Amino acid sequence: AHFALEQDRALLAAVDKFGYGNWEAVREELRSDVHLQFQHAVQGMNQDMIGKRIDYRMRQMEKEVEAREKKLKSEKPANVVAAEKAIAAIKEMEQWESKARDLELRGDNAPSLGLLSEEARAVMEERLEERQTSISRLREIETQVRGCK
């Protein structure tokens, strides 16, 4: 017989209410359920049929749970993925800054920020902007100090 989802839900709810193996009470619960009163597949179930259907659904649910657990174990949590991306961006920025420092000490221009990943580029642009603000402020203070002599 074909079972609809609401029939299986009602069956599982009755088993939860009366306990596994208490098929007579489950059968009476299903027969008195107003939502199932015109569903002959459920109304005509005997105790053996109820037991077999419950066993079948429980095996299916166990398989679903095992599949979900296996999937969860194989996938990295979102926070781990985000942390790994952040670490990769930090390493990328450190390499860029090291290369930029070497080039600037030789009088050359820093490498293009376009070489960085999108995440690293956004953070690096923000850092460079903050650095430029600090440099400008230091130059202003230096000019003021020279004027005091």
TrEMBL record:
Coiled coil: none annotated. SUPFAM superfamilies: Homeodomain-like (SSF46689). Residues 3-65 form the SLIDE domain. One of its GO terms (biological process) is chromatin remodeling. GO terms for cellular component: nucleus. Signal peptide: none annotated. One of its GO terms (molecular function) is DNA binding. This is SLIDE domain-containing protein. The lineage of its organism: Eukaryota, Sar, Stramenopiles, Ochrophyta, Bacillariophyta.
